[in-house]
Amino acid sequence: MPSRLLTVYLFVVILISGVWIGTPAVFPLTWIAALAVGAATLMLTFSLPSPPGAPVRANPRDGLLAIVASAPCFFYLAATWREEFPYLGDQCPHNAYALEAYAFWWPWGWIAAVTAMAFVAWRTRRIENSSVPLISLAIVVAIGLMLPQPLSFAGRYPGTLHFFSVPLRAVMHLTSPLNVERLMNTLAIPAWLLLLRPLIVRRHVDITAMTIAALLFWQKDNVYYFTSGYLEPWAIVLLLTAAEHIVRFGEEAVWRPLLLLGFAAMVKEQLILSLPIVAAVYFPFRGNRRAQLEHLLVTTVAGTPFVLFWRVREVFKTWGVASPVPGQALRAAHFALFRERIGLQFGPALPLVIAALALLLVFAVRRRAFTALLFIGVADFVVMYFAKILQPWAGYPRLNLVPLAMGAVALGYAAELLAERNRAAGAMIAVTAVALNCIGLAPTIHDAFRPSSARNFIEHFDAPVFFPIRETLAEAERKGFIAPQSRIDVFTNGKHIFQFFWAGPLEDQYPDLAARYHLRSASFTGVPSRCRCTDPSIAHLAVFIRFTNLGANIPQRTATEAEANQCAAEILRTCTRTMRVTNEGVTVGILGEKTLAP
To answer: Which residues are within 8 A (CB) of 117 and not within 5 positions of it... i.e. 6 or more apart?
Structure first.
């Protein structure tokens, strides 16, 4: 393939990530450097080699195996489709960023972007040395210069995934906006098996893929993440594709995994750690100067969009929070928390996970590809374990995804080698992974059919929390307490767990309810007297945190529940009519209103 594709890549990734919005005036020198990289891709023309073989096309057998691989995630997604909104986790800001992205892109911005990408691809296909991609990138920079400021959906985190969710959000009329991102993330698994692997790795769904899926996608915490609004799922499947590419093809066409990793970093920023590792491991030290220059150019192109994101991120959130703090991370208490969370995550499957990581180490001694995967896993682990901001989340399963994915690739490769001698023995590795993961997965699936509050604190000691807002309002209207267009104040006291918590704006989390009622979010933390009924025109809904799972014994429970009881007492004392809501015998909410005297 001609190297002009690098210019196209640069244009497309920068465009859809949104890093250009309002930023050229903020850091003009960085943008000049980015355009210079684009110009270099036109001046230095060369051939991008293709790996051996040809892409394959997914067949019905692949489709059936993909269903098996992704079954827990799709089943869990369906079971929790109408769940309450998950508060006190990062899903709330990701939901807000997705809505902001939709407001920016849809419809004309998104249509214009797709049209521009199609035109650039068509023009470049017709004229090998076309400068259209670079000119188009310059136009994007000029447009960004005219916009007033960067937007948080592309600055706090990469905005790439939101671009792809825009048309889905336009056609799906949902009670929960977060379900768009949840569905997108669940689709990452079949997309990996039926699109990315056949096209890039040139493999059907085989024993390797099923073993990887069994270890990763049948693990209870990962089932939750791949049905969440987080950004990791698509970044992980891109990482898996790049990792398997270098395992299969080594240094052949290494530009492909480099670009994949650069793209993955624009989905979830931590994946940038993998790019310099693969670039260094496969640097053509024995090649001529031309080959070395070409390798450096591909790496630079892959990393340029992230450099732009790195600069815009500084506008919203300092990178200093990720700085290492060895003094805290190396404490015995920190390691004890890490060990506890790892044990809770994997349970009986932990020996298999350790075996997968051991295989990664063994293969790394023998093959350069696995050396790169080992370094990727170690680098990600070290950064996450020592980062200042992540100290309270030691062992948090979402922070273990990259090392686990690298171990899964090693385990899948071992299963394939074993299957070459004995097919049944190779398949038993995947079956064992499923069986061991199901010990923890079965209760998780069971809990999906319980009230949403039964799944409080399944993610960590501080998240998620499901408040019975939809449940209470539906029951209150059925019983005649409220009617459409009623004014309702929703009170929470989550600030004991997170000091800046606020359950709003409710129109973002519950747009259908906000359209049906006049909702206002408020906090009664420290002031339970706010729960009193004073205005007959406003109903008061106080929703309480149910402490279960990892939150059952957290220190904040005593004060939070005591204050919730005070709030409930105020409602019962001052409201004329009240309605209590319980989940499995636990009071999770109370609605009250003050009626006018006859």
So the answer is: 11, 12, 15, 16
Residues 6+ apart with CB under 8 A from 309: 17, 19, 154, 155, 158, 266, 269
The region that residue 406 occupies, defined by phi over 0 for left and psi between -120 and 50 for alpha, beta otherwise, is alpha
The token pair at 68 is 């098996």
Residue 319 is classified by DSSP as G
Three-state SS for 491?
Answer: strand
Query: What does the mean pLDDT of the chain come to?
Result: 95
Q: Where are the alpha helices (DSSP H) in 18-159?
A: 28-43, 60-79, 91-105, 108-126, 132-146
Whole-structure pTM value: 0.96
* Res. 273: pLDDT tops 90: yes
- Which of 240, 252, 266, 284 is closest to 376 using CA atoms? 240
User: With bands split at pLDDT 50, 70 and 90, how would you rate the model's confidence at 318?
Assistant: confident
CA angle 318, 320, 323 (to 5 degrees): 150
Task: Report which residue type is found at 307.
Answer: V
Is 547 in a helix, a strand, or coil? coil
**Residue written as tokens 């989340």?**
393
DSSP one-letter code for 201? I
One-letter amino acid for residue 20 of the chain: W
**DSSP characters over 128-175:** TT--HHHHHHHHHHHHHHHSSS--GGGTTS--HHHHHHHHHHHH---S
Peptide bond into 177 cis (omega under 30): no
Q: Which residues contact 67 (CB under 8 A, 6 or more apart)?
A: 190
CA dihedral 351→357→358→361, nearest 10 degrees, is 180
Q: Could you tell me the strand order of the sheet in which 538-543 lies?
A: 518-523, 487-492, 538-543, 586-593, 577-583
Quick check: 10 and 305 in contact, CB under 8 A? yes
Q: Which amino acid is at 117?
A: M
CB 505 within 8 A of CB 548: no
Around Cβ 369, how many Cβ atoms within 10 Å? 25
What whole-number distance in Å separates Cα of residue 49 and Cα of residue 66?
A: 30
Q: In this predicted model, what pLDDT tens digit does every residue of 423-468 receive, in sequence order?
A: 999 999 999 999 999 999 999 999 999 999 999 999 999 999 999 9
The distance in angstroms from the start CA to the end CA of the chain is 83
3-state secondary structure (DSSP) of residue 490: strand
List, for residues 503-559, the tens digit of each pLDDT value.
Answer: 989 999 999 999 999 999 999 999 999 999 999 999 999 999 999 999 999 999 999
**126-172 confidence digits (pLDDT tens):** 887 789 999 999 999 999 999 999 999 999 999 999 999 999 999 88
Max Cα-Cα span within the chain: 94
